[in-house]
Amino acid sequence: xxxxxxxxxxxxxxxxxxxxxxxxxxxxxxxxxxxxxxxxxxxxxxxxxxxxxxxxxxxxxxxxxxxxxxxxxxxxxxxxxxxxxxxxxxxxxxxxxxxxxxxxxxxxxxxxxxxxxxxxxxxxxxxxxxxxxxxxxxxxxxxxxxxxxxxxxxxxxxxxxxxxxxxxxxxxxxxxxxxxxxxxxxxxxxxxxxxxxxxxxxxxxxx
Length: 207
Description:
Strand content: over 45%
CATH class: Mainly Beta
Order of helices and strands: HHEEEEEEEEE
Number of domains: 1
Number of strands: 9
CATH architecture: Beta Barrel
Radius of gyration: 19 Å
């Protein structure tokens, strides 16, 4: 997993260097842009059916990603994305002997998204709204511990708002996104069903 994170981070740095070498004129004229995003996310575990003495813990995490953005019309864009999401959601299951069993829900996932973006045309500041599907694939390290349970893949619908701002050589786009999970991601036999949602604040750079 460390190798995956290293390669992903190296690729992001290369993308930043390429964006800085472009000019603002090229960024405006190109219908296809590439970029990367870094940000924070907050897990929201939906405890549909867990034991009475159990409780969920939702803490902030981080995410790193790359994307492309194609301008179909002046106001309509298509943006496929791939992001590594380090989540900090878990279920705490207290035992009768006073100990606790922790079930980590989607600790690391590869999110593959296909977002459609409606953007205000004209000017150097472009507010936008996005919506699209998101396939979340858990990335779990292999372990011989039979008490460690993985998480099932999830399919979500993303909704978000953001704003594009033009700078010299690149575009900057802060984005607030909500991901609504549709499937039961639980694979712990002590729990029947868990939903997984998240809120993310991502800073996108593209050129």
